[in-house]
Design a protein that fits this description.
single chain; alpha/beta; eight-stranded mixed β-sheet; two-stranded parallel ribbon; 12 strands; 50% helix
Length: 398
């Protein structure tokens, strides 16, 4: 309906003129007509009645005009509502930060990662990216693929992961090492190391809950960090066979043989990058939670180094602590479970349980800081994430 603003004005103009004419006639009659007073009063009453009728008509017209204005206002309000809800008007919802988890290496001490994941999942902290090195890649990869935390904890405490990591005791491997050396003397071209890791690779693939064994199919984007001996650079393995990537990331020098993938020869990424904070940042994480499972470097008595393997253990711990110093600086939050005293190559169930408990304790201690940084509106409720993630514009090329 179109609104004619001029209509009311046109309607009132004749009424105004007519009223003026009547008043003029009335004054003229009073001045020049010598009619009796009764007649004059009677005439005046008629004139007043006529004016009253005209005024009533004008009021009716004004009421009609008011109704038209009210109707036009309602139409404008509806038009404004339609414009606001139009698909062309985009109202950006609040974006939640993308959370990345960097899981460090450390053999049996890696069971602490399970405890940390348990707390994060319980508290509704949604993880968008995971990068892991060595044992961190094992736990992180299984979690990214959808393996339940309780299942990982059971297998760790039963010693199944470490059993498949080292398929024979180190002492036995050292005893038969001369036989491998003799094979090299007659032309065998095997890479240096006591274990190949093939049994471990196959076991990891079988542990996945899905048929597709490639990392690209995981529920959470994941990468395993390994060091290429050829060019001396670390690589984030985010594509291809999961078991093969873990075999490369866990190939501890001298203990496990290097793993050839295409034109690269990989060993344990912990040699240079034991805590992959930079790698998870490159994946697109806004907030990085790093889980450092290094032993704390405390002063030890000299007698401690009389034990078999104690010197090598100490050197490795010192190296990892030094390497992780720069990586820790890139993290927003660092969770450091107390895993002192747990050997990296331990197969004891007690050590696994101790490490898991240490992970739970450390994560709960860091929880207030985590929740404050992430924001309560970005936690999950009954499995659903409140707030939508920022669109992923970065991808891991390696």
């Amino acid at each position: 309906m179109e609104l004619d603003i001029e209509k009311g004005a046109r309607a009132r103009k004749p009424v105004t003129c007519l009223t003026a004419a009547f008043l003029t006639a009335l004054f003229s009659a009073s001045a020049f007509n010598p009619a009796p007073a009764f007649a004059q009063a009677h005439l005046t009453s008629k004139q007043l009645n006529s004016i009253t009728e005209q005024l009533n008509e004008t009021t009716a017209q004004l009421n009609e005009t008011t109704a038209q204005l009210k109707e036009a206002a309602e139409q404008l309000n509806e038009a404004n509502k339609a414009e606001i809800s139009s698909p062309d008007v985009v109202v950006s919802p609040k974006r939640r930060p993308r959370i990345g988890l960097a899981l460090g290496g450390g053999g049996m001490r890696g069971a602490a990662h399970i405890g940390v994941l348990e707390v994060l999942e319980r508290e509704g902290v949604h993880v968008d990216y995971i990068a892991g090195t060595s044992m961190g890649s094992v736990i992180g990869g299984l979690y990214a693929a959808g393996v339940p935390i309780c299942e990982m904890e059971e297998k760790f405490t039963r010693g199944l992961y470490m059993k498949h990591f080292m398929t024979a005791p180190i002492g036995l491997r050292l005893a038969v090492a001369p036989a491998f050396l003799s094979l090299k003397a007659v032309g065998s071209h095997q890479y240096d190391g006591l274990y190949r890791g093939n049994i471990f690779r196959k076991y990891m693939d079988k542990s996945l809950p899905c048929e597709d064994k490639n990392i690209e199919s995981f529920k959470i984007p994941f990468c395993a960090v390994a060091l290429n001996l050829v060019d001396g650079k670390p690589y984030a393995l985010s594509k291809g066979n999961f078991g093969r990537a873990l075999q490369a990331s866990c190939a501890l020098p001298m203990l496990r043989r290097p793993v050839k993938i295409e034109d690269k020869l990989f060993v344990d990424g912990g040699v240079l990058v034991n805590l992959p904070t930079q790698q998870v940042r490159d994946m697109g994480a806004d907030i990085i939670i790093a889980v450092d499972i290094d032993e704390r470097i405390d002063e030890l008595p000299m007698s401690e180094f009389e034990k078999l393997g104690s010197v090598a253990h100490r050197v490795i711990c010192l190296h990892l602590a030094k390497v992780d110093q720069e990586s820790v600086k890139l993290a927003n939050i660092v969770i450091h479970p107390d895993v002192n005293g747990i050997r990296m190559v331990s197969t004891k169930r007690k050590d696994a349980k101790t490490a898991v408990a240490a992970g739970v304790a450390a994560a709960e201690k860091a929880l207030p800081e985590i929740l404050k940084l992430i924001g309560p509106e970005n936690l999950t409720v009954q499995g659903k994430v409140i707030g939508s993630p920022i669109p992923d514009t970065n991808s891991n090329k390696n």
